[in-house]
Backbone:
Protein backbone atom coordinates (compact mmCIF):
# COMPACT_ATOMS: atom_id res chain seq x y z
CA UNK A 1 0.00 0.00 0.00
CA UNK A 2 1.99 3.04 -1.22
CA UNK A 3 2.13 6.33 0.65
CA UNK A 4 -0.04 8.75 -1.33
CA UNK A 5 -2.78 11.30 -0.79
CA UNK A 6 -5.58 8.89 -1.73
CA UNK A 7 -4.55 6.43 1.00
CA UNK A 8 -4.60 9.23 3.59
CA UNK A 9 -8.01 10.49 2.47
CA UNK A 10 -9.93 7.31 1.69
CA UNK A 11 -12.92 7.07 1.22
CA UNK A 12 -12.81 10.44 -0.57
CA UNK A 13 -10.52 10.96 -3.57
CA UNK A 14 -7.68 13.44 -4.01
CA UNK A 15 -9.78 15.18 -6.68
CA UNK A 16 -12.67 15.69 -4.24
CA UNK A 17 -10.25 16.87 -1.55
CA UNK A 18 -8.73 19.50 -3.84
CA UNK A 19 -12.16 20.80 -4.85
CA UNK A 20 -13.89 20.76 -1.47
CA UNK A 21 -11.22 21.19 1.20
CA UNK A 22 -7.82 22.42 -0.04
CA UNK A 23 -7.37 26.05 1.08
CA UNK A 24 -11.07 26.09 2.04
CA UNK A 25 -11.93 24.10 5.17
CA UNK A 26 -10.48 21.52 7.61
CA UNK A 27 -10.64 17.81 6.83
CA UNK A 28 -10.50 14.95 9.35
CA UNK A 29 -10.02 11.26 8.59
CA UNK A 30 -8.80 8.07 10.22
CA UNK A 31 -6.56 5.41 8.69
CA UNK A 32 -7.60 1.98 10.05
CA UNK A 33 -5.08 0.75 12.61
CA UNK A 34 -4.40 -2.37 10.52
CA UNK A 35 -3.46 -0.23 7.50
CA UNK A 36 -1.26 2.35 9.25
CA UNK A 37 1.99 0.27 9.18
CA UNK A 38 1.39 -0.43 5.48
CA UNK A 39 0.74 3.21 4.57
CA UNK A 40 3.81 4.30 6.58
CA UNK A 41 6.03 1.41 5.51
CA UNK A 42 9.68 2.41 5.91
CA UNK A 43 9.06 4.75 8.84
CA UNK A 44 9.92 3.53 12.36
CA UNK A 45 7.46 5.18 14.71
CA UNK A 46 7.33 2.93 17.75
CA UNK A 47 8.72 5.72 19.93
CA UNK A 48 9.99 9.29 19.84
CA UNK A 49 13.52 7.89 20.25
CA UNK A 50 13.15 5.94 16.98
CA UNK A 51 11.82 8.99 15.16
CA UNK A 52 14.82 11.02 16.36
CA UNK A 53 17.33 8.28 15.52
CA UNK A 54 16.19 8.06 11.90
CA UNK A 55 16.09 11.80 11.29
CA UNK A 56 18.72 13.27 8.99
CA UNK A 57 18.50 16.58 10.87
CA UNK A 58 21.34 17.71 13.12
CA UNK A 59 19.20 19.96 15.31
CA UNK A 60 15.70 20.19 16.73
CA UNK A 61 13.62 23.14 17.84
CA UNK A 62 12.33 23.17 21.41
CA UNK A 63 9.12 24.85 22.52
CA UNK A 64 8.57 25.50 26.20
CA UNK A 65 6.32 27.59 28.41
CA UNK A 66 7.78 30.71 30.01
CA UNK A 67 6.39 33.39 32.28
CA UNK A 68 5.89 35.61 29.23
CA UNK A 69 4.34 32.96 26.99
CA UNK A 70 6.09 30.44 24.75
CA UNK A 71 9.87 30.18 24.39
CA UNK A 72 11.73 28.61 21.49
CA UNK A 73 15.34 27.55 21.00
CA UNK A 74 17.42 25.13 18.92
CA UNK A 75 19.54 22.29 20.36
CA UNK A 76 21.60 19.41 18.89
CA UNK A 77 19.34 16.49 18.07
CA UNK A 78 21.53 14.17 20.19
CA UNK A 79 20.37 16.09 23.28
CA UNK A 80 16.69 16.17 22.30
CA UNK A 81 15.47 13.27 24.45
CA UNK A 82 16.82 14.90 27.60
CA UNK A 83 14.80 18.04 26.97
CA UNK A 84 11.79 15.99 25.87
CA UNK A 85 11.86 14.06 29.16
CA UNK A 86 11.76 17.43 30.94
CA UNK A 87 8.42 18.17 29.25
CA UNK A 88 9.55 20.26 26.29
CA UNK A 89 8.00 19.91 22.83
CA UNK A 90 10.26 18.82 19.96
CA UNK A 91 9.89 19.95 16.37
CA UNK A 92 12.40 18.52 13.89
CA UNK A 93 12.56 18.08 10.12
CA UNK A 94 12.56 14.69 8.41
CA UNK A 95 14.76 14.92 5.30
CA UNK A 96 15.59 11.20 5.10
CA UNK A 97 14.94 9.46 1.74
CA UNK A 98 11.72 7.74 2.87
CA UNK A 99 9.87 10.80 4.15
CA UNK A 100 11.33 13.03 1.42
CA UNK A 101 9.89 10.71 -1.24
CA UNK A 102 6.51 10.85 0.50
CA UNK A 103 6.63 14.64 0.52
CA UNK A 104 7.38 14.69 -3.21
CA UNK A 105 4.50 12.30 -3.87
CA UNK A 106 2.10 14.55 -1.96
CA UNK A 107 3.33 17.55 -3.97
CA UNK A 108 2.44 15.58 -7.11
CA UNK A 109 -1.00 14.68 -5.78
CA UNK A 110 -1.67 18.29 -4.72
CA UNK A 111 -0.40 19.70 -8.06
CA UNK A 112 2.37 21.68 -6.31
CA UNK A 113 5.46 22.35 -8.49
CA UNK A 114 8.50 20.49 -7.09
CA UNK A 115 10.97 23.03 -8.35
CA UNK A 116 9.41 25.91 -6.43
CA UNK A 117 7.70 24.45 -3.39
CA UNK A 118 10.77 24.45 -1.14
CA UNK A 119 11.47 28.13 -1.75
CA UNK A 120 8.55 29.05 0.49
CA UNK A 121 9.62 26.75 3.32
CA UNK A 122 7.67 23.57 2.60
CA UNK A 123 8.86 20.81 4.91
CA UNK A 124 8.07 17.40 6.42
CA UNK A 125 8.61 17.24 10.17
CA UNK A 126 7.90 15.42 13.42
CA UNK A 127 6.07 17.21 16.22
CA UNK A 128 6.50 15.42 19.57
CA UNK A 129 4.83 16.62 22.75
CA UNK A 130 5.19 15.21 26.26
CA UNK A 131 1.92 14.32 27.98
CA UNK A 132 -0.11 17.40 28.85
CA UNK A 133 1.99 19.68 26.62
CA UNK A 134 1.49 21.07 23.12
CA UNK A 135 1.44 24.37 21.26
CA UNK A 136 -0.34 27.59 22.21
CA UNK A 137 -2.78 29.31 19.88
CA UNK A 138 -1.31 30.61 16.61
CA UNK A 139 -1.69 30.40 12.84
CA UNK A 140 0.75 29.43 10.09
CA UNK A 141 1.36 30.51 6.53
CA UNK A 142 1.38 26.86 5.43
CA UNK A 143 -1.27 24.38 4.38
CA UNK A 144 -0.85 21.69 7.05
CA UNK A 145 -1.49 17.95 6.70
CA UNK A 146 -0.74 15.86 9.80
CA UNK A 147 -0.81 12.13 10.60
CA UNK A 148 -0.95 11.12 14.26
CA UNK A 149 1.71 8.46 14.99
CA UNK A 150 1.78 8.01 18.76
CA UNK A 151 -0.52 8.84 21.64
CA UNK A 152 -3.51 11.12 21.55
CA UNK A 153 -3.57 14.82 20.69
CA UNK A 154 -6.40 17.30 20.98
CA UNK A 155 -6.67 20.11 18.45
CA UNK A 156 -8.72 23.28 18.75
CA UNK A 157 -9.31 24.92 15.35
CA UNK A 158 -11.01 28.14 14.26
CA UNK A 159 -11.62 29.99 11.01
CA UNK A 160 -8.57 31.65 9.39
CA UNK A 161 -7.64 35.02 10.82
CA UNK A 162 -7.00 36.21 7.26
CA UNK A 163 -7.48 34.79 3.81
CA UNK A 164 -4.24 33.69 2.14
CA UNK A 165 -1.87 34.82 4.93
CA UNK A 166 1.80 35.29 4.10
CA UNK A 167 3.32 35.04 7.61
CA UNK A 168 3.01 32.98 10.78
CA UNK A 169 1.60 34.67 13.88
CA UNK A 170 1.28 33.87 17.58
CA UNK A 171 -0.34 36.33 20.03
CA UNK A 172 2.50 38.25 21.61
CA UNK A 173 4.63 38.13 18.46
CA UNK A 174 5.69 41.28 16.70
CA UNK A 175 2.97 42.36 14.26
CA UNK A 176 4.35 41.85 10.75
CA UNK A 177 4.22 44.88 8.49
CA UNK A 178 3.25 42.56 5.61
CA UNK A 179 -0.18 42.16 7.26
CA UNK A 180 -0.83 45.89 6.82
CA UNK A 181 -1.25 45.40 3.07
CA UNK A 182 -4.46 43.44 3.60
CA UNK A 183 -5.42 43.84 7.28
CA UNK A 184 -6.32 47.13 8.93
CA UNK A 185 -6.95 46.05 12.52
CA UNK A 186 -5.09 43.84 14.98
CA UNK A 187 -5.94 40.18 15.46
CA UNK A 188 -8.30 39.06 18.20
CA UNK A 189 -7.76 35.34 18.64
CA UNK A 190 -10.68 33.07 19.59
CA UNK A 191 -11.08 31.30 22.94
CA UNK A 192 -11.05 27.50 23.20
CA UNK A 193 -14.80 27.34 23.78
CA UNK A 194 -15.31 29.14 20.46
CA UNK A 195 -13.15 26.66 18.52
CA UNK A 196 -13.81 23.28 16.96
CA UNK A 197 -12.35 20.44 19.05
CA UNK A 198 -10.80 17.43 17.31
CA UNK A 199 -9.10 14.46 19.01
CA UNK A 200 -6.56 12.53 16.95
CA UNK A 201 -5.49 9.00 17.84
CA UNK A 202 -2.83 6.95 15.98
CA UNK A 203 -3.86 6.87 12.32
CA UNK A 204 -5.81 10.12 12.61
CA UNK A 205 -5.36 12.48 9.66
CA UNK A 206 -6.04 16.21 9.84
CA UNK A 207 -5.75 18.96 7.25
CA UNK A 208 -6.09 22.65 8.15
CA UNK A 209 -5.88 25.54 5.65
CA UNK A 210 -3.21 28.17 6.07
CA UNK A 211 -4.09 30.98 8.42
CA UNK A 212 -6.39 28.82 10.56
CA UNK A 213 -6.14 29.55 14.27
CA UNK A 214 -5.17 26.39 16.15
CA UNK A 215 -3.67 25.07 19.37
CA UNK A 216 -2.85 21.55 20.50
CA UNK A 217 -2.34 19.50 23.64
CA UNK A 218 -1.13 15.93 24.12
CA UNK A 219 -3.24 13.64 26.30
CA UNK A 220 -2.35 13.62 30.00
CA UNK A 221 -2.04 9.83 29.83
CA UNK A 222 0.65 9.50 27.13
CA UNK A 223 3.18 11.38 25.00
CA UNK A 224 2.22 12.34 21.45
CA UNK A 225 4.03 12.39 18.11
CA UNK A 226 2.77 13.29 14.64
CA UNK A 227 4.16 13.44 11.12
CA UNK A 228 3.47 16.88 9.63
CA UNK A 229 3.61 18.04 6.02
CA UNK A 230 3.65 21.83 5.67
CA UNK A 231 3.12 23.10 2.13
CA UNK A 232 4.12 26.64 1.21
CA UNK A 233 4.04 26.77 -2.59
CA UNK A 234 4.85 30.10 -4.24
CA UNK A 235 2.07 32.66 -4.38
CA UNK A 236 1.05 34.24 -7.67
CA UNK A 237 2.93 37.35 -6.60
CA UNK A 238 6.09 35.28 -6.02
CA UNK A 239 5.89 34.13 -9.62
CA UNK A 240 4.76 37.40 -11.21
CA UNK A 241 7.00 39.85 -9.32
CA UNK A 242 10.23 38.85 -11.15
CA UNK A 243 8.42 39.08 -14.52
CA UNK A 244 7.13 42.57 -13.66
CA UNK A 245 10.60 43.62 -12.50
CA UNK A 246 12.20 42.40 -15.72
CA UNK A 247 9.57 44.17 -17.83
CA UNK A 248 9.94 47.47 -15.93
CA UNK A 249 13.74 47.41 -16.03
CA UNK A 250 13.68 47.23 -19.80
CA UNK A 251 12.90 50.98 -19.54
CA UNK A 252 16.11 52.88 -18.76
CA UNK A 253 14.29 55.33 -16.46
CA UNK A 254 13.50 52.55 -13.97
CA UNK A 255 17.22 51.70 -13.75
CA UNK A 256 18.34 55.22 -12.88
CA UNK A 257 19.14 56.35 -9.32
CA UNK A 258 16.26 57.62 -7.23
CA UNK A 259 17.07 61.10 -5.92
CA UNK A 260 15.42 64.08 -4.27
CA UNK A 261 13.62 66.29 -6.75
CA UNK A 262 12.69 63.43 -9.08
CA UNK A 263 9.22 62.79 -7.63
CA UNK A 264 7.51 63.90 -10.85
CA UNK A 265 9.48 61.35 -12.85
CA UNK A 266 8.60 58.65 -10.37
CA UNK A 267 4.89 59.51 -10.63
CA UNK A 268 5.19 59.33 -14.40
CA UNK A 269 6.80 55.91 -14.14
CA UNK A 270 4.00 54.67 -11.91
CA UNK A 271 1.47 55.84 -14.47
CA UNK A 272 3.41 53.96 -17.12
CA UNK A 273 3.47 50.83 -15.00
CA UNK A 274 0.31 49.46 -16.63
CA UNK A 275 2.23 49.13 -19.90
CA UNK A 276 4.92 47.11 -18.18
CA UNK A 277 2.27 44.89 -16.56
CA UNK A 278 0.86 44.16 -20.01
CA UNK A 279 4.35 43.30 -21.22
CA UNK A 280 4.81 40.92 -18.30
CA UNK A 281 1.44 39.30 -18.98
CA UNK A 282 2.45 38.51 -22.57
CA UNK A 283 5.05 36.11 -21.21
CA UNK A 284 2.46 34.09 -19.29
CA UNK A 285 0.59 31.52 -21.31
CA UNK A 286 -2.11 29.41 -19.67
CA UNK A 287 -1.99 25.64 -19.91
CA UNK A 288 -5.16 24.32 -21.48
CA UNK A 289 -6.22 21.70 -24.00
CA UNK A 290 -5.18 23.89 -26.93
CA UNK A 291 -1.72 24.60 -25.56
CA UNK A 292 1.31 23.24 -27.37
CA UNK A 293 4.37 22.10 -25.47
CA UNK A 294 8.01 21.83 -26.42
CA UNK A 295 10.94 20.34 -24.53
CA UNK A 296 13.60 22.54 -23.00
CA UNK A 297 16.56 21.49 -25.15
CA UNK A 298 19.09 22.32 -22.45
CA UNK A 299 17.37 19.94 -20.00
CA UNK A 300 17.66 16.19 -19.66
CA UNK A 301 16.09 13.47 -17.53
CA UNK A 302 18.02 10.30 -16.77
CA UNK A 303 16.18 7.48 -14.97
CA UNK A 304 18.19 6.11 -12.06
CA UNK A 305 15.76 3.67 -10.45
CA UNK A 306 12.57 2.33 -12.01
CA UNK A 307 11.50 0.26 -9.01
CA UNK A 308 11.48 2.87 -6.25
CA UNK A 309 8.50 2.59 -3.92
CA UNK A 310 7.97 6.34 -4.26
CA UNK A 311 8.00 6.27 -8.05
CA UNK A 312 10.68 6.62 -10.70
CA UNK A 313 13.80 8.39 -9.46
CA UNK A 314 15.48 10.45 -12.16
CA UNK A 315 18.38 12.88 -12.43
CA UNK A 316 17.16 16.20 -13.80
CA UNK A 317 19.82 18.42 -15.35
CA UNK A 318 19.14 21.89 -16.73
CA UNK A 319 22.71 23.16 -16.96
CA UNK A 320 26.01 21.59 -16.04
CA UNK A 321 25.85 23.34 -12.66
CA UNK A 322 22.16 22.63 -12.04
CA UNK A 323 21.30 18.99 -11.40
CA UNK A 324 19.15 17.25 -8.82
CA UNK A 325 17.24 14.05 -8.22
CA UNK A 326 13.47 14.10 -8.72
CA UNK A 327 10.76 11.50 -8.24
CA UNK A 328 8.27 11.02 -11.08
CA UNK A 329 5.28 8.74 -11.38
CA UNK A 330 4.96 6.29 -14.27
CA UNK A 331 2.65 8.55 -16.31
CA UNK A 332 5.04 11.50 -16.08
CA UNK A 333 7.95 9.29 -17.16
CA UNK A 334 5.95 8.17 -20.23
CA UNK A 335 5.12 11.77 -21.18
CA UNK A 336 8.76 12.85 -20.63
CA UNK A 337 9.93 10.03 -22.92
CA UNK A 338 7.43 11.12 -25.56
CA UNK A 339 8.92 14.62 -25.63
CA UNK A 340 12.50 13.30 -25.58
CA UNK A 341 11.71 11.63 -28.92
CA UNK A 342 9.53 14.50 -30.23
CA UNK A 343 11.62 17.14 -32.00
CA UNK A 344 8.89 19.79 -32.27
CA UNK A 345 5.78 20.92 -30.44
CA UNK A 346 2.97 18.63 -29.37
CA UNK A 347 -0.42 19.26 -27.79
CA UNK A 348 -2.38 17.22 -25.29
CA UNK A 349 -4.31 15.40 -28.01
CA UNK A 350 -1.13 14.27 -29.77
CA UNK A 351 0.26 12.83 -26.52
CA UNK A 352 -3.06 11.13 -25.81
CA UNK A 353 -3.07 9.46 -29.23
CA UNK A 354 0.49 8.24 -28.71
CA UNK A 355 -0.26 6.93 -25.20
CA UNK A 356 -3.76 5.39 -25.12
CA UNK A 357 -2.85 3.67 -21.82
CA UNK A 358 -2.95 7.10 -20.08
CA UNK A 359 -6.14 9.01 -19.41
CA UNK A 360 -6.54 12.73 -19.99
CA UNK A 361 -6.21 13.65 -16.31
CA UNK A 362 -2.91 11.75 -16.02
CA UNK A 363 -1.51 13.46 -19.12
CA UNK A 364 -2.56 16.93 -17.96
CA UNK A 365 -1.03 16.37 -14.51
CA UNK A 366 2.16 14.97 -16.07
CA UNK A 367 2.54 17.94 -18.41
CA UNK A 368 1.96 20.34 -15.52
CA UNK A 369 4.65 18.59 -13.46
CA UNK A 370 7.14 18.68 -16.34
CA UNK A 371 6.43 22.37 -17.01
CA UNK A 372 6.93 23.16 -13.31
CA UNK A 373 10.18 21.19 -13.38
CA UNK A 374 11.40 23.14 -16.40
CA UNK A 375 11.63 20.11 -18.70
CA UNK A 376 8.72 21.40 -20.85
CA UNK A 377 7.57 24.88 -21.67
CA UNK A 378 4.29 26.13 -23.08
CA UNK A 379 4.64 27.21 -26.71
CA UNK A 380 2.28 29.33 -28.75
CA UNK A 381 -0.63 27.29 -30.19
Residues:
Amino acid sequence: MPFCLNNLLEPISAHEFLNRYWSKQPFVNEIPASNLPKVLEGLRFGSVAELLADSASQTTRLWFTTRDGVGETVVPIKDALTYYAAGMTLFFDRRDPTVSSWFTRLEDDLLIPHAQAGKAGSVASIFASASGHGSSIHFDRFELLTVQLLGEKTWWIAEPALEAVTDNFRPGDEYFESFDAYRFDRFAHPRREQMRKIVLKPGGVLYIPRGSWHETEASAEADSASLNFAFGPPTRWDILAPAIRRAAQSDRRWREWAANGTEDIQRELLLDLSAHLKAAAQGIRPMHAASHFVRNRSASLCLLDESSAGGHVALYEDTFESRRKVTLDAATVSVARHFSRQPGCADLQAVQLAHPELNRTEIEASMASLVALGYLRVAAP
